[in-house]
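Support reply, case 0932

Customer input (verbatim):
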Amino acid sequence: MTFNFSAITSKLKNLVSKYFRFILVIIIAIVLIIGYTSVIKPKWSEIQQAGIFDYNKEKKSLEENNQYLDRLKASLEKYNGINKAEVDKISRIIPSSDSVSDLFVLFEELAKTSDLNLDSINISSAKSLTGESSTPTGTSPTTEVKAVTPASKNIYVQDIALHLSGAKNYENLKEFLEILEKEMRLIDVTSLSFDSKNFENNESESDISLNLKTYNYQEKE
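Our regenerated output:
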């Protein structure tokens, strides 16, 4: 069997020439489909996912900032609503100074109010309340427990040794303790000693010795 390649080639050329535009369109369509599915579509999906992620993140951040701003506004309104007299009271209860001269003046006035004489006063330097130790009930005397709390890290304590004279009777002592209790500044009496025989026999005036603690607030690192 003999093939006429010239005739076959001529027919193919005529066929291609006749349907060239149609074949070209199909080829272009195939290339576009392959390019879209393998390159464009995956990239577009990545861009969409990244865009949605960033939007949600920014939206959440904006909501948190707005909530924080609302809390600040509420705190500012409360602060502006505080009575200045109340703030002054707090400052007197726990002052922001450990001035020895202020304490000396205070106890001298308290003694005069009770008709007593302030013979001597010894005031220690302020020390952090968190550095003190205590012996709770149920522990041995040698067991030390540090009183460390976030609320007390800026509270400082001063020990005061006070010696008074001129107490004629129990009423003088009672009056001084009552005045000390009513004093705005926070003061704790840790020990008290006096000669009770003088009061009972009315023989002479008695001396009074007190050990006290007072507190102040200091912004220290």
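We compared this against your earlier run and they match. Two observations from our side: Strands lie at 117-123, 127-128, 133-134, 145-146, 155-167, 187-194, 206-217. The first strand starts at residue 117 and ends at 123. Please reopen the case if you see a mismatch on your end.
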